[in-house]
């Protein structure tokens, strides 16, 4: 975020009376420079630098430090987004595992279909056993492939029922699902 001001605090701390009695071995600064780490309107933190100079920074140095602060904010934000994405991916994997385990426990043929072409996205073991296809033969193909004719395809919708959902259709063979 360009245009932020660097703040100079405690200028000439070497002669600051609050420093009296401090160890002579302790490093001292003439000025403290605070660089806020800001993203949008939120402050993530700040970086504090001590300067041994009375005039801590030239305008070019201040511009360089502002760019450094922006780079740090970018890096922190990228790390946080990456952590959130990894967490979401892990939750999605866990949900998919649960869905697959649930479908595997159902002894009726179940298909999850997507789009107007009714592409098979998921099917259970009972579905593959019933129709004699391997899962990889069904998944990614239209459900019409298991019907001997277009008429049979349309009649199965009426005979077995199709439940329409926001993510596609669930087609259970052998049971009518009420919409």
Description:
This protein has four helices and seven strands; from the N terminus they run E-E-E-H-E-E-H-H-H-E-E. By secondary structure, the protein is an alpha+beta fold. The strands form two sheets. The protein has a four-stranded antiparallel β-sheet. A hairpin with a 2-residue loop joins strand 2 (31-39) and strand 3 (42-51). The radius of gyration is 33 Å and the shape is rod-shaped. The two termini are 52 Å apart.
Query: Share of helix among residues?
Result: 25-40%
Q: Write out the strand line-up for the largest beta sheet, numbering strands in chain order.
A: 5-4-7-6
Radius of gyration: 33 Å
N→C terminal distance: 52 Å
Shape: rod-shaped
Give a quick rundown of the structure.
The chain contains 4 helices and 7 strands; from the N terminus they run βββαββαααββ. The chain is an alpha+beta fold and 179 residues long.
How would the blueprint of this fold be written?
Layout: E1 7-9, E2 31-39, E3 42-51, H1 59-105, E4 110-114, E5 119-123, H2 125-131, H3 135-138, H4 150-160, E6 163-165, E7 168-172
Antiparallel strand pairs: 1-2, 2-3, 4-5, 4-7, 6-7
For this entry, give a set of tags.
single chain, 179 residues, alpha+beta, 39% helix, disordered C terminus
């Amino acid at each position: 975020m360009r245009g932020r001001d660097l703040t100079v605090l405690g200028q000439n701390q070497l002669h600051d009376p609050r420093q009296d009695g401090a160890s002579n071995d302790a490093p001292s600064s003439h000025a403290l420079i605070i660089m806020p780490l800001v993203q949008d309107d939120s402050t993530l933190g700040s970086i504090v630098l001590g300067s041994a100079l009375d005039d801590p920074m030239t305008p070019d140095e201040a511009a360089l430090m502002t760019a450094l602060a922006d780079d740090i904010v970018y890096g922190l934000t990228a790390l946080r987004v990456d952590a959130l994405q990894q967490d979401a991916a892990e939750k999605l994997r866990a949900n998919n595992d649960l869905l697959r385990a649930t479908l595997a426990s159902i002894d009726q043929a179940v298909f999850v279909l997507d789009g107007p072409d009714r592409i098979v996205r998921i099917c259970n073991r009972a579905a593959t056993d019933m129709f004699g296809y391997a899962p990889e033969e069904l998944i990614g193909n239209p459900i019409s492939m298991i019907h001997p004719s277009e008429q049979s395809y349309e009649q199965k919708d009426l005979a077995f029922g199709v439940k329409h959902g926001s993510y596609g259709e669930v087609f259970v063979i052998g049971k009518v699902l009420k919409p």
